Amino acid sequence: MTAETLLASLQLSIPELILAVGAMALLMIGVFAGEKSASTVTGLAVAVLIIAGLWLVLKTGEGEAYGGAFLSDPFAKFMKVLALIGSITAMVMTVGHARSAQIDRFEFPVLLVLATLGMLLMISANDLISLYLSLELQSLALYVVAAINRDSVRSTEAGLKYFVLGALSSGMLLYGMSLIYGFTGHTGFTQIAAALTAEGRSLGLIFGLVFVLAGLAFKISAVPFHMWTPDVYEGAPTPVTAFFAAAPKVAAMAILVRIVINAFEPVVADWQQIIVFISIASMLLGAFAAIGQKNIKRLMAYSSIGHMGYALVGLAAGSMAGVRGVLLYMLIYMVMTLGTFACILAMRRKEGENVENIDDLAGLSQTNPFMATVLTVLMFSLAGIPPMAGFFGKYFVFMAAIEAQLYALAIIGVLASVVGAYYYLRVIKVMWFDDAKGEFARTAGELKLVFGLSGLFVIGYVLIGGPLGSAAEAAARTFF
Amino acid sequence: MLSVFILAPFAGSLLAIFFPPDQRGATAWFAGAIALLCFLVAAGLYPFVTSGGVLRYDLAWLPELGLNFTLRMDGFAWLFTVLVTAIGVLVVLYARYYMAAEDPVPRFLALFLAFMGSMLGVVLSGNLILLAVFWELTSIVSFLLIGYWHHNAHARDGARMALTMTGTGGLCMLVGLLLMGRIVGSYDLDVVLTSGDLIRNSPLYMPVLILILLGALTKSAQFPFHFWLPHAMSAPTPVSAYLHSATMVKAGVFLLARLWPVMAGTEAWFWTVGLAGLSTLLLGAYFAIFQQDLKGLLAYSTISHLGLITVLLSLGSPLAAVAAVFHIVNHATFKASLFMAAGIIDHETGTRDMRKLGGLIRYMPGTAVLAMVASAAMAGVPLLNGFISKEMFFAEAIETHQANILDTMTPYGATLAGMFAVTYSLRFIHSVFYGKAPEDLPKVPHEPPRWMRAPIEFLVLACLVVGIIPAITIGPFLHTAVVAILGASTPQYSLAVWHGWNLPLIMSFVALAGGVGLYFLMRNYLATSIEGPPIFRLLHGQRIFERVLVTLSWKWARSLEQRLGTRRLQPQMRFLVFIAIAAAALPLLLSHYEMPPLLVRSIDPAFALLWAVGIACAIGAALLAKFHRLAALVLLGGAGLTTCLTFVWLSAPDLAVTQLLVEIVTTVLILLGLRWLPKRIEDTQESELLSLQVRFRRLRDFLLAITAGGGVALIAYTMMTRPLPETIASYFLERAYKEGGGTNVVNVILVDFRGFDTLGEIGVLAIVALTVFALLLRFRPQADSLEAPEQQRVQNAFDDDHPDRNEGDSVAEYLFVPSVIMRWMFPVIGMLAAYLFLRGHDLPGGGFAAGIAMSIGFILQYMSGGTRWVEERLRIHPLRWMSIGLLVAAATGIGSWLFGYPFLTSHAQYATLPIVGKFPLASALFFDLGVFSLVLGATVLILIALAHQSIRAPRAHARAMRSGKEAS
Do B572 and A469 touch (CB under 8 A)? Predict the structure, then answer.
């Protein structure tokens, strides 16, 4: 690698470099300033993320870097912006809760920055090796983050479970990758696609494909690799769960899209079946299993499983419209989820304890009408009822499925969303129709800001949908 | 101009929220003004829609998706717009007086306006998707309106049921509309309306029909989805008057009429729509007779009338469509007024129970007269509007449309339903206004305020005027609407009261007479009976609905989750492995896998034996892992050794050496770690006593393991029998000596070709060692493993028993011979390491191997001499070894810069030392030295960290705990 290509590569990955250097610098600051520096480090971490995001939007060009292992294209940019927004928002939401959730350690923001770095690299990965490394960077940071509250049995259990199952799925992913490499002789996505076009598919490759998809399905918590999600969502401290629910999903979905559309484009019929199966299973499980939940974090876990299923409907279509649908779905999903988690974080009794049962929301419409309204809007949106943003997310993916003649998939999807609507409505019913049990403490400003903006987005999507749609379309065009 | 219909109500709704709650009048004025504005605009637009004119308003929204914000007003939409806005004005006026002072009226009116906007959106949408959006919006807002009095449990249930039903139906309809758009290729209503043949002939026609009907029938409360409407009656009466007479429930029939030109006329349409309509018509009317609640009666009558409209639309003849549109208007007029009258009665007497009411004509004669006229219109009495559309219905029912049994039955069903309608209308009037005066009413009945009655007066007047001179009053408007639906096929029809003596008239009279007779027959029964029709009341739609809902969604979901979901890690992992196996097996089974032929070359018996031992060791390790860790570890070492020997056998001595050394070091380190784990889990049960469940579980796990292992082996086998893809191995083989100056390719790769990677790797190794050290530094063993091992305890006890012995003597004696040997071994091992190191460039060995070998020497010292003994004599700090190693390696790399080469370029030649002889001296050797130093340092550091655990006093542990508590 000559100096010029190295320089060009570095230039394309400046946002990632900012995060990497930033994380190390923050770690140093934390180490030397001691435990008390947690809030300073958090603030600086947010700043680092914002700088990286600005650089990404304003300065970063497009092209290949590091010998084709890293790719900067409109798709990557779109997803990276989403992931950064998700991380920043989640980190802002932790500010007021760090102490009560016992995550006020300076390592916490550093780990989040590292996880975000992993996500960005993953979104840009154009090679099995860089995919695996970035995925692990993200995952390892998340394993630690899930167990960050060492004094809580639930949190450590969640972290351990996540680690063990995650390691298993990483193993599968790696195994699949080695099979793919063995049968095509390449690790680069482009070369794999070329080899597949030239030589056709072989059984070993299908094995590899299955295992790779299994490993990635774990990361987006799609059925049947969803087992960890409810436990980890419930066990991890709520700010951590908020982080888990948003940005990592975006990144994992991005790499899933890239790998099937880019590398496995020649064997579309094979992966389409798998994606359709995963999608249907996720939608149904997400819909039915959520009904019985009493804990709102667990509910959101199942809800996220279901939503990943809907997003995969778009991917199953395998078309430009489908990918655009996935992009918009992830955008809308992320905003809704962050808003909802901001509300969940605001569920704190005046005595200072955090509550997380759905019944604790009873009578919210009387005690805190603003939050009740926002949460209602978010729930309607999550249920996919027009004219909220969630409806459009579903609309785009179902449209793509219908255009790809996957009628059964679309119809099952709609039925699942009907069932899903039921439990979202239950939350609304509890808020508006049940008698209040007690009031929540005053909501912190940053949470109000987050859920307010999220609610505004969900309602106002009707108006801003056009530009967002064209942005997603431009991003989706990368592949077609 | 059309956007006013959407913007004004929604903007008004937003503003209305900000009115103070006690400003009933002002808010009502405001809302009324908005409704009136919409009405006036609609009226002003009339000239543009006559004779098939269409107004359009387009706003590019997401044009590339075929999603435009298109509003479209033709005659039919115009008629509906006028209906929605006009009745809206009247209902606002009514609500001003109806709502109590303590009700939050601004919230009500905000929702009301939002509803009006949504409803206008449904009516005016020029795009199928937009229509679905507004459709769902009406469901949501109506949910909030029905549940307005949320302190009332019944209202909450009703609201939820209404939303569940109509929302679900709406989503089904959305899919139907999407499919329809797919058939047509556009979502634009204008395009859709001209593609009738395309839709009817499409193979997707059936699914489209069913899905859209699901939407329309749930919204219009048609059988079997009718039961939500009576429960929605717990809404405030203005809501019922608006939503459940004129607007929301009409959305369903609106859609049917809207799509009538493109979907009607097929047999499937006739049967599905007709059957639903006819059963609704009859059942609704029949149920209405037996209601005791005034609004319940009206609700069922609404259901029945909607059924009538549905039947008309099902027939597929243009004349029937005309009648349907006409009846939509008529029904809205008289039913809205009746709801308002019922509201007044409820408001002024405090009850809606017909068993308690009676003789009210004496207290509120004005209201009584109005209600009587309206209900006469509902019954279809001549000279009122209901009569005319009902006549048209009868006339159409007689006509033969399709030769089947349903068509034959229609006239009889119609007459019967007409009879029932007369009965319940009569009952409404008779039991409320006549008979003996009411007793113990919650309030003293009296006439309502002047302006509360005004809306009813207006509507009743409309009933009368339309009923007497239809052709002049409603005629042109109706024609405009009908032309918009039917276009060129608009039939000739005459709106008149008198058509001469004909069959429909006779049917009317039969219905009237029969209805009156029926009422007087049942009067006494009805006056005292309980709510609901006989027999049928046992079949509570609501109860069934709830039970189904609960079973489906709650019980099944929960049991499913309990069965399939688990919070335990082991089942989760088992599931994951199982899924992986299944996922891998599926393509295998589907694609007729053929094993590549097994090539048996001469297998050496010794090698086979070696592998048999290795496999036995591996299985043994897995078996014992839970029960006896030490044994498992030893067996694991055996398996590792087999691997090493295999490498030797297959001519890879370099790998073998490295593997062997790594094997030894890791085993020893794990051994040291084992000290702090419980020694073994006692298997309390004898194997005979194992329960069946345990046996089954073990068998299952065993099979799972066999399958997974077999599968992996199979894949590996397939992989290895394939021709190798082009690899880079030959590249390195060719260039190792030429460019790297060494014949040990692995080592040349490590220190030369991939020297940069190695530098990174040793950096990582250093970090790992530091991390292990840092982690173990704070490690405190669990209390239950603090105790000294059994053997040490026995030995110490022995020492204690003998006064001439010091503690520890036994151990020293015990280990005397081994420790001497081990100490002597140290220089030998050092020599070996040096040997491995120096020959590394050409032959198996190298810095890594040498470093590991040297650390084995240290491990032996620790084992023989004990921690204290070693550390007293340890002169060099491992951290220094590590840092020096890293620096040397980096310096070698940088050194090549001095000679103008890229980083880490190496130079190779041979040198001769006395005694040692000739050995390869590449500049890479210094790099290798760095590797050696670092590996040695890292291993020793980890060793120290582990070893220190044994000398850390438990007391320190306790003290740390205490101080930790005090600090916190």
Answer: no
Contact list in B for residue A473 (CB cut-off 8 A) is: 64
The pLDDT assigned to B955 comes to 46
With an 8 Å Cβ cutoff, is A341 touching chain B? no
What are the tens digits of pLDDT across the range B88-121? Answer: 899 888 888 888 777 778 888 888 888 999 999 9
Interface contact B561-A289, CB threshold 8 A: yes
Phi then psi dihedrals of residue B102, to 5 deg: -85, -10
How far from the centroid of its chain's Cα atoms is residue B955's Cα? 54
For residue B546, the chain A residues in CB contact (below 8 A) are none
Q: Which of A179, A184, A384 sits opposite B715 (nearest CB)?
A: A179
Interface probe for B, chosen from A395, A396, A397, A456 (most Cβ of B below 10 Å), is: A395
Q: Assign 3-state DSSP to chain B and report helix, strand, coil percentages, each to 5.
A: 75, 5, 20
Considering only CB atoms, which chain A residues are within 8 Å of B556?
288
Which residue among B65, B580, B591 places its CB closest to the CB of A469? B65
Measured CA to CA, the distance from residue A265 to residue A250 in angstroms comes to 21
Strands (E) across A55-133 are located at 63-65, 70-72
What mean pLDDT comes out for the span B59-77? Answer: 76
Q: How many degrees, rounded to 5, is the angle at CA A408 between CA A405 and CA A409?
A: 85
A227 and chain B in contact, CB less than 8 A: yes
Q: Which residues from B are below 8 Å from A230, CB to CB?
A: 565, 567
What is the overall mean pLDDT for chain B? 79
DSSP string, B407-419: HHHHHHHHHHHHH
Question: Beta-carbon neighbour count of residue B214 at 10 Å?
Answer: 19
| Dist CA B197 CA B179 (whole Å) | 15
Q: Which residues of B touch A182 (CB under 8 A)?
A: 719, 722, 725
Does B343 have pLDDT greater than 50? yes
Query: In this structure, what token pair is assigned to residue A329?
Result: 């779905």
Contacts with A, B 186-245, CB within 8 Å = 207
How many C-alpha atoms does B764 have within 13 Å on its Cβ side?
6
Give chain A's largest Cα–Cα span: 70
Q: Is the pLDDT of residue B512 over 80?
A: yes
A79 or B7, higher pLDDT: A79
Q: Which long-range contacts (CB under 8 A, 24 or more apart) does A24-28 make?
A: A26/A106, A26/A109, A26/A110, A26/A113, A27/A106, A27/A107, A27/A110
Q: Does A388 touch chain B (CB under 8 A)?
A: no
**ipTM higher than 0.85?**
no
β-strand partners of B912: B918
Any CB–CB contact under 8 A between B164 and chain A?
yes
Percent of chain B topping pLDDT 70:
83
Q: DSSP per residue over A406-448, as a string? A: -HHHHHHHHHHHHHHHHHHHHHHHHHHHSPP--PBPPPPHHHH
Return the ∠ at Cα A354 (arms to A352 and A360), rounded to 5°.
115
Q: Are B863 and B855 in contact (CB under 8 A)?
A: no
Note whether B557 contacts A291, CB cutoff 8 Å: yes
B119-146 confidence digits (pLDDT tens): 999 999 888 888 888 888 888 888 878 7
What radius of gyration, in Å, describes the C-alpha atoms of chain A? 21
When mean pLDDT is compared over A440-454, B657-671, B741-755, the highest value belongs to: A440-454
pLDDT at A281: 92
Report d(CA A34, CA A13) in Å as an integer: 31
Lowest mean pLDDT among A228-232, B22-26, B693-697: B22-26
Contacts of B579 in chain A (CB under 8 A): 214, 224-225
Q: Is any Cβ of chain B less than 8 angstroms from the Cβ of A402?
A: yes
Confidence of residue A136 (pLDDT cuts 50, 70, 90): very high
Give the per-residue pLDDT at B968: 47
